[in-house]
Amino acid sequence: MSEIKILHNPRCSKSRETLKLLEEKGIAADVVEYLKAPLSEAELKSLFAKLGLDDVKKMMRVKEAEYKEAGLNGADVTDEQRFAAMAEYPKLLERPVVINGDKARIGRPPEAVLDILG
User: Fold this and answer.
1) Which residue out of 12, 27, 32, 53 is catalytically annotated?
2) What are the tens digits of pLDDT across the range 40-55?
3) What number is the average pLDDT over the span 85-99?
4) Which range marks the domain in which residue 110 is found?
5) Has residue 99 been placed in a domain?
6) d(CA 37, CA 7)
7) Which long-range contacts (CB under 8 A, 24 or more apart) does 109-116 make?
8) Known catalytic residue: 12?
9) Beta-sheet pairing, 30-32 with 103-106
10) Do residues 84 and 41 lie in contact, with contact meaning Cβ atoms separated by under 8 Å?
11) I want to staple 53 with a disulfide (CB 3.0 to 4.6 A). Which of 19, 49, 58, 88 is the partner?
């Protein structure tokens, strides 16, 4: 089992490009189709820490209809509510995400993941 994982959506071109980039570099990653196996709130919080971001919204697809429908763009929305929404609507998670141990990067652009692969 690989230590490197990719949270992958096969329908997403950036996700496919990132997976191809890993393969070209000879990196065997565990492919996790997060839309079929959604992350829990605890897993999302752990992922947020690994990403090293300063704002939960930076790991979310804020242009998705579900984001607006869930009222997540309000100034009074808490991080807890955002994590709960991503657990309920996994498509809100920005993709792809490559995880290597205690570090993670969003593959936008795909090359952004290379700095955690050593």
Assistant:
1) 12
2) 999 999 999 999 999 9
3) 97
4) 1-34+95-118
5) yes
6) 10
7) 109/14, 110/14, 110/17, 110/18, 110/20, 110/21, 111/21, 113/18, 113/21, 113/22, 114/21, 114/25
8) yes
9) unpaired
10) yes
11) 58
